[in-house]
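Batch manifest, entry 17 of 40.
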Amino acid sequence: MTKSCGFWGLLLILALLGPVVECQAFGGDKTLVTINGKNFTAEDYRHWWHEWQEPDTPFPETFDEFVDWMLLSQEARDMQLHENLNYRKKMQVFLKVRALMQLKAEEVDIRKTIPPREELWQAYREGFTPILNLHMLAVTDEEQAHVVRSFLDRGITLDKVAAAAGLKGLAEELEATGPLRFTRIPESLRELALQLKVGEVGGPASFGHSRYFIEVLDRNDGTDEDFETVKQMLIQDALKRQEYQLTLELVEQLKNDYAVEVYNEVIEAIQPGAIDAELAGKIAVKIDQTEVPAKIIFDAAAKAQKLRGQARTGAEDFLSSKARVVNDLLVQTLTSMEALARHYEEIPPLKHTYEFYAQHRLIKELEATIIQPQVKVAESDISVYYRENSNDYAREGLLELAIVKTRERELAAKLHDRLKAGEDFFVVMKPIAPAGVEVKKLPLQHLSPQLQKEVGRLSDGQVVGGIEEGEEVLFIKLVRKGEQEFAPLEMVKEQIREQLLNDRFAQLRTDMIKQLRQRSVIKANRSVWKKLRKALQREES
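Output type: structure tokens
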């Protein structure tokens, strides 16, 4: 039920390690811009924009970024950077992953259907019901269990049997478990509980170190309301089963298409421990023109067994690992071959995404080859930048503040008048703070926005009073402003280095684009752009 999900997910992960919608043509084949003799239509821009834009990206006023993109990718291709091994590897991985996704969409996903309610209800009954409410009594040993059973056989009810038998030190007693899906009951107790009707008592049944007696207080074989709570889970399980079956059918079809041969006698000869040279060279699996020797199967099975830990090192575990390796080899190889053979990169919807990614990778190769080697930052550059932008790495010093609060507004008004008359702050505040006013050190940012504004106006020694915040009235004296502090260069050196590297890279990239524009022939059709821009804005609004 979960294998299919894991199968396709595994294929994509392995591909990584080793939605564009086709639109109707806008304005026929009118050229939007010609760059060095190559025509780009409005439709070319449309596809590029859908790939390039980020969420909430405002629609551009011009198509300059499109032109810059094409200039850079053209330059990279002219330099034959598409022959670079790094570029080719990344394109192969991208195509393999996307082609597998498209194959799955065509051969598996499109064929999955949500089952009818009757089928889901049957799965619900089998997997989620009954729901039981149980009275459970557990005793610690066989002797107590025998006593309980004898009293039950005499007609004593389970809720009274312990008292009737004079039992002490029961392991456990639950008068009612509450509604409990049968799957949540331990297996040894579940078997007993499912045999009982409402009102019946069964036991003893062993679980852990105790013997349990069970009475079914209530049994629910399913309701529409409960069904709805697990309906989506049932649908997902059904779709996973369909995916697994459809995947099996696809692989069986591909085995015929690619003339797969599995040499079972060779595979059976592969055993744990070691493999001799003669067996190692024998072909175990042949897929089209690809031959897989026994040594590959042996090594993969041994590695898989090792990864499963010390508890999985026996002969049986090796054989199960070997079978899984052979199956995975067939599935991964066949689906990858078929996905690539269909050349999804040549037809929408993958075509436009593939072309965009190819241009993107070419530009990255160009940047790595031409721009990145020129980006250098010396220690002296960092020091100069730090001196010239020191305020960016400064923070205000701590404030020394005396803050007094009161909710007595009449008293606050009188004290405020005394402060305005020039009396000493600490003397005036004695009625509110008879034990004295505490002076605290704190950053300005720790104050509320209102207090930040009030304190920001003060100089050392100044006072402000009568500030209302909620139900309180505040009085504040700024004793002293701390001196501005600067983060030491060593603390921010790497941050500055990164910023300078990014800035210089961006400037060199801008310079390169400027040079490319100067030596290129660019002919733009503004009327086509105007119509295209309006059309795309309408579509996205």
